[in-house]
């Protein structure tokens, strides 16, 4: 099963149904919206990885508005615009606003699936990088704590060595007292 949830926003019921069938066949989870209003409602209430939206739709909410709404909710949502040849310039402008890509009509499903696979791979790489960063943070924290503990232990041992040196060089103690006192200090180390 592919790990992407895809929201298809298109006012054409034939294109919506065709996209739904092909995406489900490829094991994607698919949500459908017949216009930008419904698309934005779904985006507000449901986790979506990719929005596949028609650029030109009737009403006040077209593909650009869906793109802006999606990116406003979560910058990691990928948006692919579906456009007629005459609106390629608009699609390119939309990419400057954060769209991942665009497809021209009629939709080439091989291209679409390659782009979705690229998005899936990129997300997987980002998750792996995040996991690696977290593991490195834990390792760094553990190493720092270990070094700090070793520094404290080294300081304690140095103090014991200094104390034993003082005992052994004390001319006021007998040899037996020096050995006994030094052994007492050594036993305190454990």
TrEMBL record:
Asked whether the keyword Ligase is assigned, the reply is no
Q: Which domain of life is it from?
A: Bacteria
Instruction: List this protein's GO terms for biological process.
Output: phosphorelay signal transduction system
In terms of InterPro entries, this protein maps to: Bact_response_regulator, CheY-like_superfamily, Sig_transdc_resp-reg_receiver
Q: Which residues form a coiled coil?
A: none
Which residues are reported to carry the modification 4-aspartylphosphate? Answer: 54
PROSITE patterns per UniProt: RESPONSE_REGULATORY (PS50110)
Domain Response regulatory: where?
5-120
SMART domains, from UniProt?
REC
Task: Tell me if Flavoprotein is a UniProt keyword of this record.
Answer: no
One example GO MF annotation: DNA binding
What are the protein's UniProt keywords? DNA-binding, Phosphoprotein
- What is any Pfam family matched here? Response_reg
What PANTHER family does this protein map onto?
RESPONSE REGULATORY DOMAIN-CONTAINING PROTEIN, STRESS RESPONSE REGULATOR PROTEIN 1
| The protein's name | CheY-like receiver, AAA-type ATPase and DNA-binding domain-containing response regulator
Q: Which lineage?
A: Bacteria, Pseudomonadati, Thermodesulfobacteriota, Desulfobulbia, Desulfobulbales
């Amino acid at each position: 099963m592919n790990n992407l949830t895809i929201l298809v926003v298109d006012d054409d019921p034939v294109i919506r149904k065709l996209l739904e069938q092909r995406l489900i066949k490829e094991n994607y989870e698919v949500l459908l919206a017949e216009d930008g209003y419904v698309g934005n409602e779904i985006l507000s209430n449901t986790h979506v990885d990719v929005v596949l939206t028609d650029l030109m739709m009737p009403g006040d909410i077209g593909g650009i508005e869906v793109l802006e709404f999606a990116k406003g909710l979560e910058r990691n949502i990928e948006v692919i615009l579906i456009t007629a040849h005459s609106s390629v310039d608009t699609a390119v402008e939309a990419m400057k606003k954060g769209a991942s890509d665009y497809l021209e009509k009629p939709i080439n499903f091989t291209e679409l699936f390659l782009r979705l696979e690229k998005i899936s791979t990129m997300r997987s790489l980002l998750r792996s990088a995040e996991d690696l960063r977290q593991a490195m943070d834990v390792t760094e924290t553990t190493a720092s704590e270990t070094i700090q503990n070793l520094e404290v232990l080294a300081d304690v041992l140095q103090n014991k060595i200094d104390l034993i040196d003082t005992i052994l060089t004390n001319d006021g103690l007998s040899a037996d007292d020096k050995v006994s006192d030094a052994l007492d200090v050594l036993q305190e180390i454990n």
